[in-house]
Amino acid sequence: MNAESFSYIAGLVKGRSGLVLTPDKGYMLETRLAPLLKREGLTSLDALALKLRDPRAAVLAEQVTEALTTNESSFFRDGKPFDHLRKLLPGLAAARPAGAKLRIWSAACSTGQEAYSIAMIAQELAPQLGNRPVEILGTDISTEVLARAREGWFTQFEVQRGLPARLLVKHFRQQETRWQVAAELRAMTKFERFNLLSDLRGLGRFDVIFCRNVLIYFDAPTKARVLGAMAEQLAADGVLYLGGAETVLGLTEKVVPVAGERGAYERPRPAAMAG
User: Fold this and answer.
1) Which of 32, 62, 209, 267 is the most buried (most CB within 10 A)?
2) Which of 172, 212, 170, 209 is nearest to 78 (CA)?
3) In the chain, where are the structural domains located?
């Protein structure tokens, strides 16, 4: 693939998803896009770049973007945010008016492991939450992974990654070599296609937002924009979880680190802002 073709595909994907593809990602393009080339009867990535220049190729451009956005996930990934969530939710529930539901957003949810991990915690804490309803929204740019998330089917390999055996037995049913999430957890979650570069206001207000290991693929201005928009949708006492290696430093002042917690952020308290 020549440099011009790479540059064109990279620009198209960045414009549609925020994902920044650096020149060293040529191999990733070849691997991820090979099935699409075959399906389209194209002989090379250069031929694909040429076809994408056609204004009528919007569907193809969407498919290329979906193929290149990372879909890596596991249950209770990185542990720490979920430990913090267990401590956080009862306090949030106590601060809410009677009947108000708690809303949690799993952004770039991939095949749903994060959203279902949150659902397991919410169900486990139900008595401490006063049996308050909890709504979990999982969003992703890829329709393919969302379809899998909605069905809630996982392979033996996927359930072995991060999921304790007691929770597997409690919340999943087995069919041959696959496992499906229990119906009551699926009822707590809904999965929708959504692009993080879009206007977030239509999603409403959230008590908790998970946006982990997503921003690492964006450039600084895009990170700043997304973080600022997420802060606007976060409840005054809510928490935003980012990946352990991610930071808001130099990007936004609309959220600040939660004291003593790695990867957890909150909106600045009025006193802190005044000081």
Assistant:
1) 209
2) 212
3) 3-68, 80-274
